[in-house]
Amino acid sequence: MHLVNNQLLVQHVIEGMKEDGFGRIINIISTSVKAPIPGLGVSNTIRAAVANWAKTLSLEVGSFGITVNNVLPGFTNTNRLKTLITKKAAAQGKTEEQIANAMKGSVPANRFGEAQEVANAVTFLCTPAAAYINGINLPVDGGRTASL
Asked: What distance in Å separates the CA atoms of residue 136 and residue 20, rounded to the nearest whole number?
């Protein structure tokens, strides 16, 4: 659904963007695009498909002043992350604090990101200042992703 819904949404807005000579398409996917997350084979595959779809689209619409980029959040302080920590703690017989601290320890910034930090990256990519940034995957992960 991630991939198909993105395509359907774009079909509804792309002609208007072309007419305006301006547009920003930003997908929020996952750092798994750059470094697959163990145990999430289907999720990793779908998100990689979205990233490749976006790259292809960026090549097709860049000449119209439209950019297409992906923001890749890392560990972000959300209810979803809290749920994952709870499940992981129960499965491993550890406290939630132990799991959270281990996860934070894998991030060079030594903390979880905040939703506003992801939003800040999206906001920047929507501005005219980002007009020459097109077809990229931007990790917002405190430096955790090992690949460039």
From this structure: 22
Residue in the structure block whose two tokens are 């779908």: 46
Q: What is the pTM of this model?
A: 0.93
- Which CATH number does the domain 2-74+134-140 belong to among 3.40.50.720, 3.40.50.2020, 3.40.190.10, 3.90.1150.10? 3.40.50.720
Q: What is the pLDDT of residues 22-45, one digit of tens each?
A: 999 999 999 999 999 888 899 999
- 66: helix, strand or coil: strand
In three-state secondary structure terms, 148 is coil
Query: Where does residue 95 rank: exposed (0-12), middle (13-18), buried (19+ CB within 10 A)?
Result: exposed
